[in-house]
Amino acid sequence: MLPALLALGLALTAAAQPSDLPTAGPDSSWRDLAPRLYVQDETWSDMDFIKTELTFVNYVRDRTEADVQLTITSQTTGDGGSEYCLNFIGLGSFHDINSVLKHTTAPAATPDETRKALVDNIRRGLVPYVARTGLRDALSIEFTPPAAAAPVTDPWRNWVFAFSLNAFGSGDQTYSSIYYDLSPEVRRVTETEKLAFEGGVSTNQRRFVLDTTVVTALSRSYYGRADYGRKLSNHVALGARFRYNTSDYSNLRCGLTLGPKLEYDIVPYSEYVRHKVYLRLTPTVQYANYFDTTLYNRLSEYLVENEAVLGAALTRSWGSVELSAEGSHYLHDITKNRLSVYGSVSLRVIAGLSVSFSGGYSFIHDQLALRKDVASEEERLLRLRELATGYSYWTSVRLTYTFGSVFSNIVNPIF
């Protein structure tokens, strides 16, 4: 049925305006003919998976640069599943092609099943647009590009600039809180390299009224980071990282970190959206300048730290699993170390029954910046400064069981 529908869609759109079809010259790249797609995603879809599965369009960040706008939204169905709505809007020379496609997923659908269904429906919706280009003869159910992919002309050369401001406030008669953070970001991602710069400032002010006493808690932090990575093969990447941060909560007036990064992935990078097993090594040189004398009688110091991360992730039709372990220690004293483990599992146990849980635990023995003086009761209760601890943890569990009608096509948006 699907091949017939695709063939019909191609025939109808190709016959509509045959004179408008661009064709590839001997020196043209097929990507120059591909439609430009802008995706407005309201569902936190797996965009990396979409881009690796649908390679016959050019993805753009700005709607004004697009030939097609795709808006993805979803609603909860009566049985707890989801109805996805894909709204395709033609722009420019494609302004007369508009469509809406919908599909539903079961309550027990795994992330892999959900994203595969989404990709299949997006592929169907893009057929009329591709059929109006010079790629119509190359389009089939399984797309094979007529030539090796060539980069589309980009005056920004893959550079992207972003700026964000977040603010939040709340309060009542005895309490008020104001929080904001400001962060600019610059990044560049190509097939072989990744470069990112980011900085920011955050302020958190809380005010407590206790009878006739008013207590104000104010904390500020500033940070800057730069990361560079280059793919050396389909398994190995090399890079570098830089960090700057200051935090009165952590007693750090100025913290600088610089070092190389090495990554080895057992699974080829080309398959990372489905599974990955990686090892990352990051030795760094650090400089720390403190607001107050530390527990080890230091106001400043130079440090060398070794860090290693071992991780794995897997996404299949039955669910997904992600595990990682991170260890670090200082070279001058290996007893000053930290070990953190993280795990996340989402499983469909049986039809209608799904369970997901995640958590992390850290063994902490590397708090070199702790203040020497004893924290007051106010500082302890309000968490105004970092306190000594041997561990930290977090966890979450979710169990869902759905039964009854197997039909999930009805959507009722009232209330």
TrEMBL record:
<protein>
    <recommendedName>
        <fullName>DUF481 domain-containing protein</fullName>
    </recommendedName>
</protein>
<feature type="signal peptide">
    <location>
        <begin position="1"/>
        <end position="16"/>
    </location>
</feature>
<keyword id="KW-0732">Signal</keyword>
